[in-house]
Amino acid sequence: MRNNLKKIIVLFVVAILMMGTALTVYAEDGCTTDSAGNVFFAGDDVEISSGTYFGGFGAGTNVSFVNSVADDSIALAGMNVKFDSSSAVSSVYLAGNSVVVSDSIIGGNIVAAGASVVVDSDTVSKSVIAFGTKIEVDGSSSALTLVGEEVVINGTVEGDVTVDATTVKIGENAVIGGSAFITSSVPANTTVAVKNPELTIRGPKS
């Protein structure tokens, strides 16, 4: 499973980076907006701030979409990628060495790939699909699909959680409303058994 997902990661990152190369040519002045309201930006340090757009694509070394609104999807690629205090009606697609989504509302999915992927506690999305070395999800979503070396879940998930990782940590603030499917590498001929589940009901925190 993990090998196939690694291929998906590579294809996803390559597609975003190829798009970024095209952006460098299209957005010669660093940022431009087409007649449909899509924003295109590229450069070493580029930030889109306090704007409303139909959708957008950005690429660079440090790429940020801050205090802005997208009526459709946003795709960002770079060394450091940040989607902060913003909203997207549809999905966001993010690829980089460091990817951070904070204080944002995503109507669709967060699809991210990077060495470090962080979705903070103030972020709400339909689902998070993330691939990386270390992935931390503290936000609220309907479902999670996470593949990485180290995965930390400390948020609220209304539905199912699927994780393929070497190390998995479920934090004390995590709430999972559906089923959790967690796999990791185990030696050959290992027997894996699941005990009868127990239902625990905790009252509200004072």
What would your notes on this structure say?
With 206 residues, the protein is mainly beta. Helices cover 12% and strands 55% of the residues. The protein contains one helix and 15 strands; from the N terminus they run H-E-E-E-E-E-E-E-E-E-E-E-E-E-E-E. It has a 15-stranded mixed sheet that branches. The longest helix is centred in the first third of the chain and has 25 residues, at 2-26. The protein is globular and about 55 Å long. 38% of the residues are buried.
Helix content range = 10-25%
Q: Overall mean pLDDT score?
A: 82
How would you spell out the order of helices and strands? HEEEEEEEEEEEEEEE
Shape: globular
Based on secondary structure, the structural category is: mainly beta
Largest sheet: 15 strands, mixed
Radius of gyration: 18 Å
Number of strands: 15
Q: What is the number of helices?
A: 1
What separation lies between the terminal Cα atoms?
A: 42 Å
> Which residues sit in consecutive blocks of at least 5 with pLDDT less than 50?
18-29
Estimate the strand proportion: over 45%
